Description:
The protein is 63% helix and 11% strand. It is mainly α. It has a two-stranded antiparallel ribbon.
Amino acid sequence: MNIVRLLILLAVLVVGLIIGALNSQPIIISLGFTQINSTTGVAIIIALLSGALIGGGLVLASVVIPLYAKLRRAQKTAPAVVVAPPSSSTFDGR
Length: 94
């Protein structure tokens, strides 16, 4: 599993480097009270990253947290299940 994550990380890094290299035109982002000098590649990557973070935050706030709260309420109201210990046998699996 760790190798798959590493390969995905490297693929995303390579795509980011390609985007940055192909979009090297300078731009000025005006925020009204200040200006930011950047390149189009950096602006694209920052816009994609901020969109993913905002989208993930919205999903977390609107779906995950309410489901987690519902799960906690369900576990509090559910009766406790007692699991019996396994019986001791002389069978050793051979």
